[in-house]
Structures are given as structure tokens and as C-alpha cells.
């Protein structure tokens, strides 16, 4: 679960202004605590990042350890939880390059902010991202698959907005701290019975 009051949709224009982002193109945000970590998709991250930064139709925002050394519209380095919602809301699409993930908290945080997610089909990501509803799950990790999914969303702003709204609604229904506490109590009661 997460604090859905902290991770909440806000005006994209306002978020960009607050962060000093003047770029008006659609923005893809990527990041992890350590982008060189092989489990967070280090080589995959680098391939997708490199492909996107060569394009004129989209910009890239980055966060995480060593992100400041990479080309982007803006890189934020390591960020605190209270800053991440502004970064997510400044973007149009969140892309995760993880190759192994048991759940995907940042995927949930992006969904809570109303941002569609693009991710490979690994680990527990389908517990967070509903393919075609709250984002796109591409299959096995591949730069080409992730880039193709990004292009599908870039080409269809209405679909992006719908997926963002669906993601937020799913978070409110299933992943708030209150909802998670209720689920734990229910589980414990059933186990005790």
C-alpha cells in the first residue's frame, strides 16, 4: 500500500513549473535507486534511455543514483518520497526496466499519480499493472518491446489519460494504506478461524 494523498494526480503544467522544466514535449520518466543494478535492468535501462534521448519528439526525466551523469531534460538524482510525486506528475509515461521485481512500489506510485506505466512482464508487476488498462506490460525484457509500447502511448494521448485515470482508480480501490490494513486483518481472521 501507499499514501494515496501524497502520491496523487496534480497538474502536469504545475509540476513542471515547480521543477523548473520548460520542455513542452511528452516526457518519459525513468529511474531506480541504482540504475546500474542488474535487477533493475541496468543494460536495459541504458538501451532505452539512449534510444529515447536521440529523439526529438519526446524528452526524458531521470531519478536515482548517478542519474545526473546521464543526458536528459532534467535529472534529479536520489529523491525523497515527498519529491517523487512531483517528478511523476511532470511526466506523461513512467517506464520501468526492472528484470526482476517481486511487486514494484514505484509502479504503484506512478499509477497513484495517474501516470500510465510501461514495464516488462517480470515477477509481480502484474499485481500492480493491468496490461492495456493501467499501462502496458510488454512480455520478456527487451529494449525494442519497451520502446514500441512507449511509442503506442505517445501516439495516443487519450489512451494515456485513460490508463492514468484507471491506474489511480485501481490504487484507490486496492492499494491505499487503509485498504491494505483491512486486507491484513481479514487474512489474519481467516487464518485464526
* Cα-based radius of gyration, to the nearest Å: 16 Å
Shape: globular
Order of helical and strand elements: HEHEEHEHEEHHH
Strand order of the largest sheet: 3-2-1-4-5-6
Kindly state the percentage of residues in helix: 40-55%
Instruction: Estimate what percentage of residues fall within beta strands.
Output: 5-15%
List the uncertain runs.
none
**Main sheet characteristics:** 6 strands, parallel
Report the end-to-end length measured between terminal Cα atoms.
25 Å
Number-wise, the strands total 6
Q: What features would you describe in this structure?
A:
By secondary structure, the protein is α/β, with parallel strands linked by helices. The protein has seven helices and six strands; from the N terminus they run αβαββαβαββααα. A six-stranded parallel β-sheet has the order 3-2-1-4-5-6, with helices on both faces. β1 (27-34), α2 (42-53) and β2 (59-65) form a beta-alpha-beta unit. The longest helix has 18 residues, at 157-174. The protein is globular, with a radius of gyration of 16 Å. The two termini are 25 Å apart. The mean pLDDT is 90.
Helix-strand blueprint:
Elements: H1 12-19, E1 27-34, H2 42-53, E2 59-65, E3 74-75, H3 84-90, E4 93-95, H4 105-112, E5 117-119, E6 135-137, H5 143-154, H6 157-174, H7 177-192
Parallel strand pairs: 1-2, 1-4, 2-3, 4-5, 5-6
Helix pairs in contact: 1-3, 2-5, 4-6
Can I get a quick summary?
With 193 residues, this protein is of the alpha/beta class.
Amino acid at each position: 500500500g501507499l499514501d494515496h494523498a501524497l502520491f496523487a494526480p496534480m497538474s502536469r503544467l504545475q509540476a513542471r513549473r515547480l521543477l523548473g522544466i520548460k520542455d513542452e514535449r511528452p516526457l518519459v520518466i525513468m529511474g531506480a535507486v541504482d540504475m546500474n543494478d542488474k535487477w533493475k535492468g541496468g543494460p536495459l535501462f541504458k538501451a532505452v534511455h539512449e534510444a529515447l534521448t536521440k529523439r526529438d519528439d519526446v524528452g526524458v526525466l531521470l531519478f536515482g543514483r548517478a542519474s545526473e551523469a546521464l543526458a536528459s531534460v532534467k535529472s534529479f538524482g536520489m529523491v525523497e518520497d515527498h519529491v517523487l510525486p512531483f517528478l511523476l506528475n511532470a511526466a506523461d509515461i513512467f517506464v520501468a526496466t526492472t528484470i526482476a521485481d517481486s511487486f514494484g512500489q514505484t509502479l504503484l506510485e506512478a499509477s497513484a499519480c495517474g501516470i500510465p506505466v510501461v514495464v516488462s512482464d517480470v515477477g509481480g508487476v502484474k499485481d500492480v499493472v493491468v496490461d492495456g488498462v493501467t499501462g502496458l506490460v510488454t512480455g520478456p525484457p527487451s529494449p525494442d518491446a519497451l520502446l514500441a509500447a512507449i511509442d503506442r502511448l505517445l501516439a495516443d494521448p487519450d489512451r494515456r489519460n485513460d490508463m492514468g485515470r484507471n491506474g489511480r482508480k485501481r490504487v484507490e480501490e486496492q492499494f491505499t494504506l487503509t485498504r491494505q490494513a483491512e486486507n491484513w486483518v481479514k487474512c489474519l481472521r481467516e487464518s485464526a478461524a
